[in-house]
Amino acid sequence: MRFAVPVFPGSNCDLDCVHAIEDVLQEPVEPVWHQEEDVSRFDAIILPGGFSYGDYLRTGALARFSPVMKGVKQAAESGKLVIGICNGFQILLEMGLLPGAMLTNDHLQFRCEMQTLIVENVETPFTCKYAPGEAIRIPIAHMSGNYFCDPSTLAELKQNGQIVFRYAGDNPNGSIEKIAGICNRKRNVLGMMPHPERAIADWMGSEDGKKLFQSMFAYWKENCGAA
Amino acid sequence: MYKATIFVTLKESVLDPQGVAVKGSLHSLGYAEVKDVRIGKRIEVLIESDNRRKAEQQVREICEKVLSNPVIEQFRFELEEVA
Amino acid sequence: MQREQTVMKSKSAISEPAPEIIREQKLFKEMGLTEAEYEQIIGLLGRLPNWTEVGIYSVMWSEHCSYKNSKPLLKRFPTEGPRVLQGPGEGAGVIDIGDGQAVVFKIESHNHPSAIEPFQGAATGVGGIIRDVFSMGARPVALLNSLRFGNLSSPRVRYLFDQVVAGIAHYGNCIGIPTVGGEVMFDDCYEGNPLVNAMCVGILNHEDLQKGIASGTGNPVIYVGASTGRDGIHGATFASEELNEGSEEKRPAVQVGDPFMEKLLLEACLEMVKKGILLGIQDMGAAGLTCSSAEMAAKGGQGLDLNLDLVPQREEGMTPYEIMLSESQERMLLVVEQGREQEIKEICDKWGLQSAVVGRVTEGNRYRIFHGGKIVADIPVNTLVDDAPVYVREGRVPDYYQAYQNIRAEEAFLDVSPQEALDKVISSINTGSKRYVYRQYDHMVRTSTAVCPGSDAAVIVVRGTEKALAMSTDGNGRYVYLDPVQGGRIAVAEAARNVVCAGAVPLGITDCLNFGNPEKPEVYWQLSQSIDGMAEACRILETPVVGGNVSLYNETKGEPIYPTPVVGMVGLVEKREHITTSAFKRAGDAILLLGETFAELGGSELQHALTGEVRGRAPVCDLEKEKALYKVVLAAIQKGWVSSAHDASEGGLAVALAESCIDGQKGAEVTIQTSLAPIVHLFSESQSRVILSVPDEYVEEVHQLAEKNGVACSRIGRVTQEAHLSIAVNGTRVIGSDVAELTKRWEEAIPCAMNPSSTLTN
Predict the structure, then answer these.
(1) Domain residues for A153?
(2) Which chains border C (3 or more CB–CB pairs < 8 Å)?
(3) If you average pLDDT over residues B48-68, what whole number do you get?
(4) Beta-strand (E) ranges in C438-540?
(5) What total number of domains does chain B contain?
(6) For a surface tag, which of A50, C13, C87, C501 has the fewest beta carbons within 10 Å of its beta carbon?
(7) Are A51 and C260 inside 8 Å of each other by CB?
(8) What is the pLDDT of residues C678-730, one digit of tens each?
(9) Phi/psi at C335 (nearest 5 deg)?
(10) Among the partner residues B21, B67, B72, nearest to A103 by beta-carbon distance
């Protein structure tokens, strides 16, 4: 299974994602410079965290115009797995691959800490290895993780099981209904604020992020991995 | 040449945490009359053009496409001819 | 003569004061030069300097760039060691960590800018120290800081604290370097003059080590990064003066940091390093283009021509003086071999950075600046660096020192109940949790952080190896104020103790010397004595000083801050399994105290929290004992005998035990036999003490190891599953607290102080 990690000017979790794939799955993974448009040779795409284009204007707003995002869009439309983590999630929202938008945290501060999440839907390619309702510990680190959408979108998200992760305990950023991660209707595109690549080893304080990458691999193997 | 002064603000229905914080500070300073604070962005764009209508159309386009996010934000702009 | 005539004419053409006017009206004073220094410049040039030249000398001879007040004192530091690859004098120090790798680190102050504009002041401080590290060819892997503020009861102090932390967070988070550790202390003496010291740690392969040097006649000098604007002109001089009422107006346009730009600059420069293109590289930090270009030329023993018309500029009509002295951020100066300019340009283009050839390395020693086709400065470059004045000042023992020597600080507390004392101290903003601060810093990006902020030292693993690096910043100004020699020793010893408790061998230090006005004999005495104490500690503990920074004139309204040397220590953990934290982990473990406790409450947290005072004698630091302690702690950790290790320092034994309980959410049953009063024994801040928790089967081994090394070791209790801390002294229970209650007090100390009108947000 070949993974691409697009690198925008200002990305800073790109290598962390590369390392996570290497360490957890031992599968081929490549950083892809944002000027490259063709990502068709990859089976899955990880949009990493960071501050693409300095997060100037709005978080994720400028990255969506990078050439690589054309390729990402095609990959998403063709059913390949696309996951956006933190800034990657913000980019997916800005380009409309996922519904809603991201606002500044309600307390107006950056927040970095280990966070407990509830896995709300395990019937996605990203969560099939988790147990329904499982509480997992995954770090958050963001200034704008306050997810917002209008009531009809929210109703739709619920109805279609698109809410994949919720924050447990206190709401760390004001996100609507404590939403931490959502997927599209086809469930092949996931956006999440917490960083699963930061929870893959005992010394990191949690290994709960491993199953996310293992889920992606299991799904791919079952559905497309004949080769 | 035209200069567009663009104002991007959060939609009325969207909570503006910065505005809320500033309102709180103003109240604690004794400005009880302050009923609401909303914070937005002002963006200045210079457009090389001799056609006002075309310039206006371009500004609208970039506002819709790049400078604002229609899910949470609204915009308006003023256009003036400059030397 | 011909040339010098041209120099003067070109200046008068752009309506800057003529050289004669500068002399007559003593305008050089406004730039911070003394009369004697000005006369020295005339002697060196053999003529009157023009406006630009006076500006260049004034920044190069400022304390910030020349260390003119501290140089003779700094020579007392040991700077060499078998592992040292680069000592002081370059962007940052470099120490070998084996496998062809080295650790690069430096700490620097941004006190004065942060006092005026806390957010940008702190942010640009972080940006500057990161550039110092990657200009050595290293990949920055961690940030730390050391902060001092006045009392949080003042709204202005709350604003400064809030904004400084936000500024540090903004820069570090955006550029993607984890802020893994640091310290924050509050004391009235920092009210108008907060301290903001930022430290950066990087890793490099030996072959990538760079230097700030201009070599090879004819080679191009290349400018990379952000455009030059009028921001921060004379920042280096500003940093070398006292803050006063007029400071806010005097401050020229505040520098604004752009971490996004710096991220691009960082990646571009490291790409150049990997491709082996660079001959020399130096950050344009304090004193901007002037300092970087002059130092590079002086180090290379070459001259340099700079054409200011080629310097990318953000504003129109900038004068040579302004371009040379601008402290615009995120700029780098490079020297490459002639013919490789295109390779630099290609890398810069890829990262969307501008670059420009702005000068040439020349034969000889002339430092010549061209503007508008004319020479606007022509200076023998060595005079800027080597001929800077050096001042050995007079020191005087302050009156308070003698008086404090006779005070027995512990006598004031004999009637205080230990329980009440613990409740007070644990919820003081100095002892309380700093989570409010570090949760705003991304401390996990780069996925290498093994020990997050909150333990004695932070630890990051070195990917692809078994190694890890432990790091800590420490400095207690109260001790140094009471006794600069002991305080200086303690600053180094405590930093070393912290990395040792994390399982690391201390490698070396970087220091930031924050002091008042050295022209005052008492302040000079503090500076000189504390350097003696630090140097002694560095020698005995084998932790050379590989770089640092001096920040003098930290005063407000004529009152100096506590002398506050801050030590940034880096240690090497040989194996990941050695990484140790301060949290109690296993119920049933024995709690051992290594080291001895004396009646030492002068400058203690107990004294400060209960009385608001700082008086008496500082704790005594016996460096040989300290060294023996490290040996025992490290050996025990490496043998796998230790569940947790925690330094007993500010707040003493009682606070250290409470912290280990809180961190691990475990309890402890402690019984102490002592000849001291319980309150004194529990809150004394005697040095060279570490609390270990050890599984029963290893207790005897640890005892023997300690005995062999002459370190006192006593079993004082055991870790319990029930989260309750109980301490009995000489058979009487004096403290009994639920850990939940302690946690609450400890966690809420800073949030409550920051939000005096309400309870916790969130």
Answers:
(1) 3-224
(2) A
(3) 94
(4) 449-451, 458-461, 468-474, 505-514
(5) 1
(6) C13
(7) yes
(8) 999 999 999 999 999 999 999 999 999 999 999 999 999 999 999 999 999 99
(9) -125, 130
(10) B72
CATH number of domain containing B69: 3.30.1280.10
Residue A31, chain C, CB below 8 Å: the answer is no
CA distance A186 to chain C (A): 31
Question: Residues C79, C121: contact at Cβ < 8 Å?
Answer: no
Counting residues of chain A whose pLDDT is more than 70, the rounded percentage is 99
Please write the tens of the pLDDT for every residue from C634-668: 999 999 999 999 999 999 999 999 999 999 999 99
When divided into structural domains, chain A yields a total of 1
C chain contacts of residue A54, beta-carbon cutoff 8 Å? 174, 258-261
CATH superfamily of the domain spanning C1-61+211-388: PurM-like C-terminal domain (3.90.650.10)
CB contact under 8 A, B14 and A100: no
Q: What was the ipTM of the complex prediction?
A: 0.97
B71 in contact with A at a CB cutoff of 8 Å? yes
Q: Which CATH number is associated with domain C401-432+580-749?
A: 3.90.650.10
Record: contact C176-A50, CB cut-off 8 A: yes
Does residue A14 sit at the C interface (CB-CB below 8 Å)? Answer: no
Two tokens, residue A71: 């390729």
How far CA C412 is from CA of B44, C9, C83, C86, in Å, comes to 65, 71, 47, 49
Q: Would you please indicate which residues of A are annotated as catalytic (active-site) residues?
A: 86, 195, 197
CB contact under 8 A, C450 and A204: yes
Q: B18 to chain A: which residues are within 8 Å by CB?
A: 104, 108
Contacts of C536 (CB under 8 A, 6+ apart): C485, C488, C489, C623
Q: Check CB contact of B18 with chain A, cutoff 8 Å.
A: yes
Instruction: Give me A35's structure tokens.
Output: 């000027």
Q: What is the pLDDT of residues A180-220, one digit of tens each?
A: 999 999 999 999 999 999 999 999 999 999 999 999 999 99
pTM: 0.94
- Distance between terminal CA atoms of chain A? 9
A10: left (phi over 0), alpha (psi -120 to 50) or beta: left
- In contact, B59 and B79? CB cutoff 8 Å: yes
* CA nearest to A92, candidates A221, A190, A186, A213: A190
Q: Distance between CA atoms of C562 and B38, rounded to whole angstroms? A: 43
The continuous run of DSSP H or E covering C550 comes out as strand C545-551
pLDDT in tens, C473-521: 999 999 999 999 999 999 999 999 999 999 999 999 999 999 999 999 9
Q: What is the mean pLDDT of chain C?
A: 93
Does A204 reach chain C within 8 Å, measured CB to CB? yes
Nearest CA in chain A to B66: A61
> Of B69, B73, B74, which to mutate for an interface test with A (greatest number of A Cβ within 10 Å)?
B69
What kind of fold does domain C79-209+467-574 have according to CATH? 60s Ribosomal Protein L30; Chain: A; (3.30.1330)
Looking at residue C253, what is its pLDDT?
A: 63
Contact C87, C93 (CB under 8 A): yes
Distance (Å) from the alpha carbon of A75 to chain B's nearest alpha carbon: 22
Of the candidates C513, C712, C751, the one whose C-alpha atom is nearest the C-alpha of residue C626 is C712
Q: Which residues of C are catalytic?
A: 64, 110
Long-range contacts of B79-82 (CB under 8 A, 24+ apart): B79/B2, B79/B3, B79/B4, B79/B52, B79/B55, B80/B2, B80/B3, B80/B5, B81/B1, B81/B2, B81/B3, B81/B52, B82/B1, B82/B2, B82/B3, B82/B46
Q: Which of residues 245-264 of C touch A (CB under 8 A)?
A: 258-261, 263-264
Cβ pair C585, C523 in contact under 8 A: no
* Cβ atoms A74, A47 nearer than 8 A: no
Instruction: Tell whether B21 is within 8 A of chain A (Cβ).
Output: yes
> C-alpha C465: how far from its chain's center?
28
Domain that holds residue B48: 2-81
